[in-house]
Amino acid sequence: MATDRSRWLAxxxxxxxxxxxVLDVTIVNVALPSIQDDLxxxxxxLTWVVNAYxxxxxxxxxxxxxxxxxxxxxxxxxxxxxxxxxxxxxxxxAQNQATLIIARFVQGAGGALTSAxxxxxxxxxxxxxxxxxxxxxxxxxxxxxxxxIGLLAGGALTSAINWHWIFIVNxxxxxxxGALALRVVDRCPGFGSGRADIPGAVVLTGGLMLGIYAIVExxxxxxxxxxxxxxxxxSVALVAGFVVRQARIAEPLMPLxxxxxxxxxxxxxxxxxxxxxMFGMFFMGALYLQGVLHYDAFGVGLAxxxxxxxxxxxxxxxxxxxxxxxxxxxxLIASLVIIGVGxxxxxxxxxxxxxxxxxLPPFLLxxxxxxxxxxxxxxxxxxxxxxSDAGLASGLVNTTAELGGAIGLAVMNTFAxxxxxxxxxxxxxxxxxxxxxxxLAYGIGTALLVVAVVVAVTVLxxxxxxxxxxxxxxxxxxxxxxx
Length: 483
Hints:
Elements: H1 2-39, H2 43-71, H3 73-93, H4 97-116, H5 118-125, H6 129-160, H7 165-168, H8 170-184, H9 198-216, H10 218-221, H11 226-248, H12 262-291, H13 297-326, H14 328-346, H15 355-381, H16 390-423, H17 430-459, H18 470-482
């Protein structure tokens, strides 16, 4: 019984580390105006407070997960947590632009090391399907609801004290989480043997970082610019070269056998589509509340609070029994449809909206769908991982989420801005022009969810076997289909 309690305590410690990282992104976004005023950032340079973090974070996730497999996942978690906490202190102490941007890049690297292995440790600690579903529900709630919690925390800290405190709060959380992790999270030995594929690691990291850099700079250069197309082409070429190399060498950094599972491959297609829609909804929704309805930062956080509450109830209490009753594939499909309906309702939000009738219903639907689908999606995405590949699978899940969110947000923001500019004409209010752009973004998000449903229906398989044998089950199913 003590062992069971220690596993759940270890889960809560790991999820606290994840929550700190998820909160950081949203809190910083809320504090950007204060940072700009205090450190005299130009509008273009201000974006690097966010972009420096995203490039390091997204570029290192896959590599960090694989290194965790090779040298031990708890070790990578502790290294990442230490780097993130120290970098947070440097961010809090920053008195000029260069120091803050460099510290944010290092903070992103620490965040990648920390978060890349958490999912792997959870599925290893909870191999029994029902317990694993409950544990993934906790993780899914933290990963999906942390953003809206960050809106509240960021608004409160920035308004009540100053922007330095959004980083200072990470220090006690990081130290306490690290101390508890050393006590309650079991040391997991790595599975490494022989030499690591250093050239492959350099190619992969460079390709991912270039790709994310090209995406985050789209707003400045445009999709059709030589800058975006050139860097995007180089990024794709590097990642493709990495994959070719992994298929040919004896000791690959990323064994390609993981992708033989239809559920793993399908879930990692569905996830970026879902995250693209969700990032767009939360980002555009926050802009709509502030720019059209004139909510302040704290009011935006309160407006999203029902979404967080429903999300938590579904993730922590109802997702696991629903997945056991209907299967994770069917639950995922139904949840995607519910989220899509919520986004459709956002398309009709007026410029003078009533919160209770115009906003609360779609907020509740989105919370319901996200809370139900994330544990099922995480389980499917990790279903083909062996103990030696769990970190890689965890890093892959986080990477596809990061890339999907970044690309989706860039696409929606570009189209929304273009639509708003087109609607600005005599007789049209600024609020109506902005709202028209946001409506187009919600429409794009809904279309992405339709594609996600199609992929889920056609690619994913009903899970009837324990997680450890799903690769074999998928391969047997594929062979039967061929026969």
